[in-house]
Design a protein that fits this description.
heterodimer; A: 578 residues; alpha/beta; Rossmann fold; 6-stranded parallel beta sheet; globular; B: 166 residues; Alpha-Beta Plaits; 2 domains; 5-stranded antiparallel beta sheet; 4-stranded antiparallel beta sheet; 4 helices; 9 strands
Amino acid sequence: MKISGAQAVVEALRKEKVKVIFGIPGGVIIPLFDVLYDVKDIDVIITRHEQGAIHAADGYARSSGKPGVCLVTSGPGATNIVTGLATAYMDSVPIVALTGQVPTSLIGNDAFQEADTTGITRPITKHNFIVKDPDELVTVMKKAFYIATTGRPGPVLIDLPKDILTAEIEFNYPETIKIPGYNITTKGNPRQIKKVVEAIKKAKRPLVYAGGGVISSNASEELKQFIKKTGMPITLTLMGLGAYPGTEPEFIGMLGMHGTKTANYAVDKCDLLIAIGARFDDRVTGKLSMFAPHARFIHIDIDPASISKNVTIDIPVVGDAKEILKEINRHIDKLDIEDWIKQIEAWKKEHPLTYENDDILRPQYIIERLYELTKGDAIITTEVGQNQMWAAQFYKYTRPRQFITSGGLGTMGFGLPAAIGAQIANPDSLVVDIAGDGSIQMNIQELATIAQEDLPIKVLILNNGYLGMVRQWQEFFYNKRYSGVDLRKRSGGNQKEDKYNYIPDFVKLAEAYNAVGMRIDKKADVDGAIQEALKTKKAVIMDFIINPEENVTPMVPAGAPLHKMISSKEDAENYLLA
Amino acid sequence: MEKEYTLGVIVENKSGVLAHIAGLFSGRGFNITGLSVGETENPEYSRMTIVVRGDDKIVEQIKKQLNKFIDVIKVMDLSSVPSVHRELILIKVKATQSKRQEIFQICEVFKGKIVDISHDTLTLEVTGITDKIEALISLLKPYGIIEIARTGRVSISRGFKKGGER
């Protein structure tokens, strides 16, 4: 029996067990929305901006491990998801993005709402397709899901010209697919694994550095065994938080630019660094030539191109972290590294993450209280900047897929739509978006989606009236010349009406979107407000008026070696002088 | 140490692939010095010969990144196996009556062909390795080169096996 291309797309989504799509309709994609009108088993969430749709699909994917699906129209619909594709590509998130396209007869004519979508998105997708022959449609759908979810996951885009959606086709969904240019190595080479085991046994100061790949590969259990069996210390990247419980003694905190001193000192002094599903990003390594200067490097990764890209690796193992760790775990035992552990414990004691404990409302305190009052169980999404770093430092993540953040691309405006996706994938979980007043406004329109879907998302705004992370850099490295970062009213505003001069009034904004708004400007009110928010069934926006010039510390200046951490403007001056 | 590498790349024969590969080189700042494309014995695949400059590490990364592309079927490092390299040049030079004979001689030494002739020009077709082509250009320069068209390098491994498989 023949069905329309649009029906075939929906049937393919069913075959791929897709339960929800995030999107916005438009001219050329109407045939597909028309089919969806009668579909009851796939939920269509309409966001208010296509960027919201793709970040929501991303949050859905990161929090569930299933591919996120996003559906938008041609031209501006497609270009509006560009940032979301790049975000997902950098963080290896499986997404299938379906974009409408003008009919094949019009392609290249500068038709209304035409854009070269595959051309634009080629460098920011794992792969993309344009379907020009209706008979290819079904195979392309199968390939897209297969490519997006296997190997190193990533976003795949399918561009669907309108006439393909209306063409009549035979629906034969392939059970399996073979793509000649796409071969994934999952099982680690036994010889390499043997070398890894030998290196671990010989190490005096080993350190595990694990990243988002552990989460993608669902290897947290294996990682836990690996650490517990050997007793090695472990540091995680921003993307890896939750891959190993932050409450366990072997965890020494995040490493890198805003990592803990313990983690960065440990990297500096270790004699064996075992990287698992991490990619030696510049925010992690600092000055590359001085990264882990005494260490031999082991790198376990499914992407061969990640190996020896930035740091030359001594023992590479290409494959799936889960399978490889399983294999390694069979050959290892408790290590004799007491002196090293003692050293680590001493660093931990000497250099905990701190902030000033006074009457001023400080963001670190708010997140610590959120952690306590949510019993460490909330799914946290973040925006990007200071809010993100405080969320990484002061909430302890105990399970994978609990911390959802734009790491590689650093996309402000990610957290709120990602929270929508996370809440839809986890309807019974508490989802909190930790935001800054700058970032939240980059996709603030999605409060409407939250209201429409009646999602009980809690938004915690750490409001300092600044684009805080840039302000911090300007304080440290640009002599406090706060250029372009002040978000308050230029005129100074009416102090009587609004003592903070902040824009917008988030409490009123919450009300406009049928959510509950709260403003908290005293430390003493933090617990009460969070407790009340947690009791509320509706969405809540908590506007915390924090110390405007609070900084994220410690900090490794860009391009400095990891052990050169600074905590203040004075430190920065000394660093720049040296 | 920086040197020249020749890669043979088998890719899906469809639109967008060339743009994708060209994009990799610009996007990652790799230094490409030559590129040629043509169909292979299998009409579903095209073969690219890519000439790049870089050190071992960069070229290793280029190979890995190319391998990562789903439209790339195979990447062969033809610098590391015995291979035949050829390039074709069409070169139009000023050729007044008095100089014609000299240019004919040069063409003969390079085992080339005269493919076009006019009152005051000659067009030569020569194939060979890059050095030979460069030598030809340098020899013809004094006569006045009007126009050059080069194919870029095409390369194939020696022996029975495909792509220098051992």
